[in-house]
Design a protein that fits this description.
Blueprint (H helix, E strand, L loop, with lengths): L5 E5 L2 E5 L4 E8 L2 E5 L4 H13 L3 E2 L12 E7 L1 H15 L22 E6 L2 E7 L5 E4 L10 E11 L6 E2 L2 E3 L2 E3 L6 E5 L4 E3 L2 E3 L2 E12 L11 H4 L2 H6 L1 H11 L1
């Protein structure tokens, strides 16, 4: 376990300094969380290598000065990326219900949101690369629903380094302005409206991930079994017997 050297709280900001990094936990509101200093250089290198190898496609949201799409997207299926993001946000996102009720309306679900548990990050990551003038119009993120009893509740945006540092391009979440800082993670409910301001210089590279929830009152063992959730105490106590029974039936 990492030895903590300093822990300082002042209003909304918590700074934890250890042997490797300084993590800043900034609750802008009860439903908008900004994390800085959470990635090592090796982790950022890994994420940026994935982006460099990804196949980006242009989208109909404007053009930059060179005539290419100002905003391009690539989708990458990766447990490694999901694990890295989950390791950084997991201690801050539970319970899921705490994110709703102030400005973001809780989704109407059966069972209700109070009976869902955060389990992992989405293994499907969307990379967005913005050129000069690239923007993202006002919208709300859609949840990811791979099957009944499994769905995403929160967006997690990860800002990456670029060869030409980004100028402008701030993300505005329900009126809260978040600047582009490499290595920063921003977490908020899908229900909050957001937009991306125009990139005024350089390039902007961001990953959209999600925080996945699993319903507790699930009749059958979910087929979606992220590693982080399988190793949790809840999994061991609630579903381990059912898991063993299903494995035996397959033999």
């Amino acid at each position: 376990m990492t030895e903590l050297l300093v822990e300082r709280k002042c209003n909304r900001l918590l700074c934890v300094v250890d042997h490797h990094c300084c993590t800043q936990v900034d609750w802008r509101r009860s439903d908008i969380l900004v994390l800085d200093g959470v990635f090592s250089d090796d982790e950022l290198d890994m994420l940026e290598r994935v982006a460099a190898d990804a196949s980006f496609e242009g989208q109909e949201l404007g053009f930059d000065t060179e005539g290419y799409r100002a905003r391009r997207r690539a989708t990458v299926e990766s447990d490694a990326i999901a694990d890295v993001v989950w390791a950084r946000v997991s201690e801050h996102v539970a319970p899921i219900a705490k994110w709703f009720g102030t400005r973001a309306e809780a989704p109407r679900l059966d069972p209700p949101v109070t009976e869902w548990v955060a389990s992992s990050s989405n293994p499907r990551s969307r990379f967005y690369r913005y050129g000069l003038g690239g923007t993202f119009f006002l919208h709300q993120d859609e949840p990811w629903k791979p099957r009944s009893g499994v769905r995403s509740f929160l967006t997690a945006l990860v800002y990456l380094r670029t060869e030409k540092p980004c100028v402008g391009g701030e993300t505005v979440i329900d009126g809260e302005v978040v600047s582009v800082e490499p290595g920063r993670i921003v977490v908020f409910p899908h229900a909050l409206p957001l937009e991306g301001r125009a990139v005024e210089g350089g390039e902007k590279l961001v990953i959209r991930s999600d925080v996945i929830g699993v319903a507790l009152r699930t009749r059958h063992l979910p087929s979606f079994e992220p590693r982080a959730f399988r190793s949790s105490k809840l999994w061991r106590t609630k579903w381990s017997a059912e898991s063993d029974r299903l494995r035996q039936s397959r033999c």
